[in-house]
Each structure stands twice: as structure tokens, then as C-alpha cells.
Amino acid sequence: MLIFLLQVVNLVGGQIRYSIPEEMKKGSVIGNVAQDLGLDLKRLRSGRARIVSGESIQYTELKTDKGTLVVNERIDREQLCGDVTPCSFSFEVILENPIELHRITIVIQDQNDNPPQVLYPVQTGGSVVAEMVPRAADVGYLVTKVVAVDVDSGQNAWLSYKLQKATDRALFEVGLQNGEIRTIRQVTDKDAVKQRLTVIVEDNGQPSRSATVIVNVAVADSFPEVLSEFTDFTHDKEYNDNLTFFLVLALAVVSFLFIMCLVVIISVKIYRWRQSRVLYHSSLPVIPYYPPRYSDTLGTGTLQHVYNYEVCRTTDSRKSDCKFGRAGSQNVLIMDPSSTGTMQRIQSEQSILDEPDSPLEVS
After folding, report:
1. Which of 36, 226, 275, 286 is buried most, with the most CB atoms less than 10 Å from its CB?
2. What is the rounded CA–CA span in Å between residue 88 and residue 80?
3. Is 49 in contact with 94 (CB distance < 8 Å)?
4. What pLDDT shows up at residue 83?
5. Confidence (pTM)
């Protein structure tokens, strides 16, 4: 028996305790096991170090090449421990040749990852639940109490209550710590029957999370009066909220379209102006275009135009053979405005009078 106990003592090695926040990302380093236990990396590899745990989910993993312990699975404190505090789990690191056991404990620190949950008043979608306050209620009358819980632990679960909006803020107040709604003055006949309170519940985490609850209060002395006043309360409020939203949205869309139209118009104007300036300052030569049958208005007489002709004339043999003259651009037939029957043919290179076989006929 003594030998067995000594063997058990030899099996138990060091103990390590790590404290980490919940919701750590997979692969995040928890600690250096080899350094904290005083083990060599060669010992971890030769001893085939591994984690032994009775849990179905293995939240951690041992990296024998670096001797570090990392997160293998996302850890949710509320799912792992519920309302139990402190929240922790343990496992053993075992080595062989010789056998060694090292116990490691992981403490999970709570993070403010859950908003408060409102238990009362119950928020229903279709029906309206209203608290009734008699008109004879005195100052400090307890109307109702907002009840909320937070599944986080510690200071992350400390809740505070604030009155965010109210039909008449001078009539009601909300207890900061207990969520009690009480009257702060005497109810009068001038007070509206329908009173709507918006209470915000905040926790004490960093950053803080919150939840909102709507409390309907009826200032009336009889139950039928409450029913008649609150029949369309929720519907009217939602309708007004939706109408305001759509009006703002329509105004924004119209303004955006108006601005876009102005930008487009100004851009087109600038583009056309720049095009006109480019054409105005162009250095290209201007080539005039004369349409067919262009008339020269400088001439006078019966023939007011200048014509180009192809002249053909016969040879001395008086045969049908024709001899073509030079290009029409060199032979020009001009009608003298002062004479109605005389025609002269001018040649640019030599006069036709110099040709003996081609006499000039004058009519």
C-alpha cells in the first residue's frame, strides 16, 4: 500500500491555473504550459504530451511544438456554467516514459455579451396591456414595476432603470434601482387618459447593453373607460411613426433627385461651352464650298457667267476627223459684255492666230 501511494505521488506533477475571458477566438493562446510547468519541448514531444478530459467538448488544445495551450472551441460562460460563479473547468496533461500528470484549471471571466431581458410588463404584438391609475391617486402612487434580468454575472448583471420618454414627464418617475413607476404629483382632470411611458433598462457592463420596454398607463376610474380609450392606441402610434418615416424618406429622395438634375444640367452647359470655345479657336483653314451652278453676280450683260469649254476644231482637209484642243482650264470662252455678237478665244500658251491651218471665224 505504501509503495502504491508513492507511485501515485510521483504521477502527480504541477498544477496551473489560467484565467481567460469568455468568447475568445479559436486559436487564441491561453498560456505557455511548457514554461509554466518547467518542461522541455523535447520532453513534451518524447512523452507524447496530450490532454485528458472527461468533457464531451474539448475547449483547449496543446501545441507540443511550441508548448502552448490554445483555445480549440468558443467558450460561452452562460452555456458552460449557467448561474454558477465562479465558472471554471479542469483537465490533465499526461506525459509518458515516465508517466506524469499535470492538472490545469481554466477560470472563465464573464463578458458583457448579453443584454437585459424584460420579464414584466410582457410585450405583446397584438393586444395592449395598460396599467390603470385612478384620478384620486396621491403623490407616490405605485403604478407598476418593470422587472428585468441579465444572464451575465457580477457587475455586468447590475441593472438600472431610466424613463426615456413619456406623454407627461411631470406625472411619473421610475426608480433607478428597482424599476418602480410612481406618480410624482397629484392626478388632475386635465391629465390625458392615455399615457405612454418608454423605460430603458441598462446593465453595468463595459460597454453597456440595454433593453427598452413600453408601459401603457390609463388615468381612469372605470375599466370600460380604459377599453374605449386604448382600442386604437397602438395602431395610431405605429401609423404616425410610419408616416413620419416615409415623409422624411420622400423629402430626402426628392432633394437628392433635385441636386442630381442640377449637376447634370450644369455639366451639359459646361460641356457645350467648352466645345464652342474649341471650335472658335481652331487653326484649321476654312475651305469654302460652292454649290452646283454657282452664279457670279459681278458680270453684266446677257451672259453673266464664266464658262469652261472643251473646244474641238476640224483640220484643213475638211474631213470628219476632229482634233481636240488643250484642257478646258487653258481654253476659256469669254463673252464681252459690250458686244453681243463677238467671241474671242484666249489661249494661255500661244494664240490661235499663229496657227495657219486654223483660222478664227468671226460672225
Report:
1. 226
2. 9
3. yes
4. 83
5. 0.56
| Cis bond upstream, residue 207 (ω within 30) | yes
Long-range contacts made by residues 291-300, C-beta under 8 angstroms, separation at least 24? 299/337, 300/337
The grid cell for 184 is 410624482
122 burial (CB, 10 Å; 0-12 / 13-18 / 19+) is exposed
Cis peptide upstream of residue 86 (ω within 30 degrees of 0): yes
Asked if 52 and 94 count as a contact pair (C-beta separation under 8 A), the reply is: yes
CA–CA separation, 68 and 36 (whole Å): 10
Chain-centre distance of CA 68, in angstroms?
41
- Interval 224-259: pLDDT, tens: 766 666 655 445 455 566 778 888 899 999 999 999
Which of 30, 72, 40 has its CA nearest to residue 53?
Answer: 72
Four-point Cα dihedral 328, 331, 332, 336, nearest 10 = -160
Compute and round to an integer the Cα radius of gyration of the chain: 54
Cis status of the peptide bond prior to 98, with omega within 30 of 0: yes
Please work out, in degrees rounded to the nearest 5, the angle formed at the alpha carbon of residue 102 by the alpha carbons of 101 and 106.
140
Q: Which DSSP letter does residue 223 get?
A: H
